[in-house]
Amino acid sequence: MFASKQVEAAKPDPLAKFRSRQEDPIDVDYLVKSLIDDPNPGSASVVALFAELVDGDLQLRCREALNAYNGPLMSWVTALRDVDVYRAVHLSHVLGDFDQILLGARLADGQEATCAVWVDHLDESEIADAALFVVTIDDAVDELSNPDLTATEMSLADARAWIDYGLRRTYVFRETATWPDCRPLVRWLVGRLPGGGDFYQLPMSGRDASKALLDEFFASEAGAVFDCRDHQYLLQELVESGTADPLRWSAARVKQVLESSLLEGGHPLKVLLDVPDLLRAFIPFAHARSGIREGLTARALAALDRADPDRRSA
After folding, report:
1. Which of 81, 126, 237, 284 has the fewest CB atoms within 10 Å, i.e. the most exposed one?
2. CA distance readout (Å), 160 to 96, 115, 192, 268
3. Are residues 33 and 7 in the same domain?
4. How many domains does the chain fold into?
């Protein structure tokens, strides 16, 4: 993780001045020069490690310096070339906001590690977090499992397609204790997976199915009070936002809807002011049909309750 963090810090960051914390990265050019000036297994091993994690011109310079070095490398560095990323497990959340992809890796000496990647579907399937754990993938699945997550085997090619998509995001706006510091490590592990996989697709409930659900809602006792056609048009737009799943609503999705540009215009003000009440009636209706447990429904409604006073006073 240390080397991955240094590689990430060494890259140009146009958002650096907005970061809460800034690191002083290792000067990779200095490392390369040190290897050339004073060849030894220690400096050569560090350069070899960086050569695995960096790309472009920096990787080329590291490899050129290594090619000129004829001495030994530390055993843990040479073992990196034999890392086997052998299994992927997909943990899907019942509300569909996010997925976790676990990659099981095995070193030549039998040591195992698991890379966990969090994919946020409320934000265009961005990688919101990632970390490496020195545990087997079976242990990681056991540790992360809960009633709201479903674990399924995933092809290595599909895992690469999903993670590659998130890695293509140029900017990282959200930082965690390990992200984006471990991005070079994730990229290196994913680079060892086969290509040709299928990327994540939003659930396609179909506009006809969505319309049928909304018709049923507005015909129900809970929805009948919203008798304006403008309510119907607005709710149709809301269910198509975020994950585009009309049947599943998380607290995070509710918060995103209430802060979205959908509520900035294009609808009568009275209808826009009714949005919290409209969702407060619709979400339990939708969750009853999709079998979402009451605790998750309560969290979504609590997000509405927290936001409603602010919206009314704005």
Report:
1. 81
2. 20, 13, 9, 45
3. yes
4. 3
Average pLDDT, the chain: 86
The pLDDT score that the predictor gives to residue 268 is 86
Q: What is the pLDDT of residue 39?
A: 81
Instruction: Tell which of 80, 95, 129 closes a domain.
Output: 80
Q: What is the DSSP letter of 121?
A: G
Q: pLDDT band at residue 308, thresholds of 50, 70 and 90?
A: low
Residue 201 lies in a domain: no
Q: Which amino acid is at 199?
A: F
Q: In whole angstroms, what separates CA 110 from the centre of its chain?
A: 29
Shared-domain flag, residues 71 and 96: no
Residue 299 falls within a domain, yes or no? yes
Q: Round to whole Å and give the CA distance between 311 and 305.
A: 10
Cβ-contact 53, 105 below 8 angstroms: no
Q: State the residue range of the domain holding 21.
A: 1-80
Is the separation of the CB atoms in 1 and 179 below 8 Å?
no
Q: Quick one: 164 and 228 in the same domain?
A: no
pLDDT at 227 over 70: yes
Both 108 and 45 in a single domain?
A: no
In the block, tokens 């299994």 appear at: 87
Distances (CA, A) of 235 to 104, 259, 263, 273: 42, 15, 11, 13
Question: Per-residue pLDDT tens for 78-130?
Answer: 778 789 999 999 999 999 999 999 999 998 888 899 999 999 999 888 899 99
Q: Is residue 234 part of a domain?
A: yes
Same domain assignment for residues 113 and 138: yes
Report field, pTM of the whole predicted structure over 0.70: yes
Q: How far apart are CA 34 and CA 202, in angstroms?
A: 50
Instruction: Write down the number of H helices and E strands in the chain.
Output: 14, 5
Q: How far apart are CA 159 and CA 145, in angstroms?
A: 19
> Confidence class of residue 205 from pLDDT cuts 50, 70 and 90?
low
Q: Are residues 72 and 5 in the same domain?
A: yes
Residue 197, domain member (yes or no): no
Q: In Å, how far are 59, 242, 299 from 216, measured between CA atoms? A: 59, 22, 24
